[in-house]
Amino acid sequence: MAQAPVVTDQYAILAQRLQTLTRVMTTNAPIAQTPKQLVWTLNKAKLYRYVPAASHQERHRVPLLLIFALMNRPSILDLRPGNSFVEFLVERGYDLYLLDWGMPGPEDKNLKFDDYTLDYLPRAIRKVKTLSGVEEVSVLGWCIGAILTTIYAALRPDDGLRNLILLTAPLDFSNKEKLTFGRWTDEKYFDVDKVLAAFGNMPGEMIDYGAKALKPVENYISNYLKLYDNLDNPQIVEAWHAMNTWIRDTIPVTGAAFRQLIIDLYRNDRLMKGELLIRGERVDLSRLRANLLTVIAEGDHITPPCQSESILDKVSSSDKEIFRVKGGHIGIMVGNAAHTRTWPYIERWLGARSK
Length: 355
Known about the structure:
Blueprint: H1 4-26, E1 36-42, E2 45-50, E3 64-67, H2 85-90, E4 96-100, H3 113-132, E5 137-142, H4 144-155, E6 161-167, H5 182-185, H6 192-199, H7 204-213, H8 216-229, H9 234-248, H10 255-267, H11 270-273, E7 277-278, E8 281-282, E9 291-297, H12 306-309, H13 311-314, E10 320-325, H14 331-334, H15 336-351
Parallel strand pairs: 3-4, 3-5, 5-6, 6-9, 9-10
Antiparallel strand pairs: 1-2, 2-4, 7-8
């Protein structure tokens, strides 16, 4: 009889844990909460300008445009209060913009790198210049966003791009043995034209599965065990909830752009070879001369470091450097090292070049 209350408490604790588990597995967390204003649109793409922090009086002169990949939401850059790269920059006085590529529909299947780099990016950058009143701009590209910004920077070196930051940039596809995604894209196993004939656009769920399958135990077992073991820790639970919300919100890649990614880059390495043609114009990386910072995640299994290192040998930038961070493809920007190492380093580098 004396132990009955203990049993009751144990059941109450178990019920609470199951309730927490159900909530984070079946609902979306509030993410991307930093105040912003929609300032421009083109097709599905939207350009946002973040509201300046009231507490910060000094402003950096050169505006910064953030560009993420095509197959995920850019909300990873503004995951949640206290763990937001966007919030971090706004609080330090940057005139900050974000280009959200949006959700392509079947009607967008023919959109190519050509369209993103010669239509969307130049127009968005012109809008940034107009709103900021400055003829120079800084751009940060992450993952495929880094591919697009690199192509743009090489094709239009006179458009006022002052600083270029590349995060985990998959640019060099020459080392086939180290290309983890190369296992899925090899023509012996993957017929890209048949897939696109069936779907039009490349489904985001298929890309997400391919990425997770590179580390199946970690992604399908360890990730959930970590959550279960920490259901009594609100900080870990809410961080997991926010990250899971972002991961589940996948976006298809337009068929034509995905085909370029597989054929031109993964299989033929045309960008680094100087053979990539964008609307008939050869992409010559030696024309890129903006100040360049390449951020490499040393534990990245999506974009191995070898894909991001050689760009410095190709460009004409007089101010260029590599910054290496321990961590993975996403973790270097949202994990524990982000607040203490990645964000402060990027901000110091950029701040010194934004006056």
